[in-house]
Amino acid sequence: MADTTPGLVCGHHHLYSSLARGMPAPPRSPTTFLEILEQVWWRLDVALDLDMLRWSAMLGALEALECGTTAVVDHHESPSAIEGSLDVIAAACAEVGVRVVACYGITDRHGADGARRGLEENERFLRAGGRGMVGVHAAFTCSDETLTRAAGLAADLGTGVHIHVAEGAVDAGSALRLAPLVAEDWLGVHGVHRPAPLPEALGRATLAHNARSNMNNAVGYARPREWPGPVVLGTDGIGGDMLDEARVAYARAREDDVTTTPENVWGWLAAGAALVPEAAGDRVRWSYDGIDDPWRAAFTPGVRALDAWVDGVQVLAGGRATRVDGAEVRARAAEQAQRLFARL
What we know:
With about 350 residues, this protein is α/β, with parallel strands linked by helices. Helices cover about 40% and strands about 15% of the residues. The protein has twelve helices and 14 strands. It has a six-stranded parallel β-sheet with strand order 5-6-7-8-9-10. The chain has a five-stranded antiparallel β-sheet with strand order 1-11-12-13-14, covered by helices on one side. A three-stranded parallel β-sheet has the order 2-3-4, with helices on one face. The longest helix is centred in the C-terminal third of the chain and has 18 residues, at about 325-344. It is globular, with a radius of gyration of 19 Å. The N and C termini lie far apart (about 50 Å). The model has no long low-confidence stretch (mean pLDDT about 95).
């Protein structure tokens, strides 16, 4: 398939956020990153149940596939529906035909018991053969004991830790706390407020850069070109369109440093294959023949995925998913979104 490209990889997603569009406004307008978490996302995640998770994951996977993204590295939290949540997400993505690397983001926000249950969900899923990592929400919401247990479980199971690091100023001290624990197979997300100099161990981990989300939350610019280790692109839950995310990342990088080239950013996009190596064998045919040229891709909006094959099986044909009814998925997800909004 010489006229195709490998499948794209979203290096950091929150599939449950696909239900958040149109959600009721928070009690008051947030003015800081911590208030955004407290008034929006931490209210939403505690309201989720397993039915909501299924259809949010189905919708998120469907939208990713329609954009040529055949693999998603997902970071999940549903404090009221922890047990079995990763199975639900993995099954939903498989039904659509999208690869997923799942994790549950443990936190002490809901007490030591909540952290324990989250860690157990990671362990249960991984030991049962699930594709994933050990998830941690962020160091500033975890005790040192919880962080140590998460790092130990990841080392025991031979997988990395997927964790938000220094996203906002409230988490600026996380890098120093994590430095004694981090390993090269860790995936650190955001890294905006990292210290200088960066602890050497942390710099060997992969950084998931989420330009659009960082701008939306006004947390600052991460300067991923200065990260010493690998860099991949994620959306932080704002859809699964990785070509669009790459264009936003390029514009933001160019604003910071005019010497940035599309090759720099498209290198981050291609590096996602290191997280899900099988995606390099997936194939996508596009509506535009020059999508494999970073300079042309950076300035050509509206490119659509026409066809996609995962493990040699066609899962997208003429822009439509072949394994699920896209209209039904959207309708069922809309029903679950209304259930979620009622709880808020």
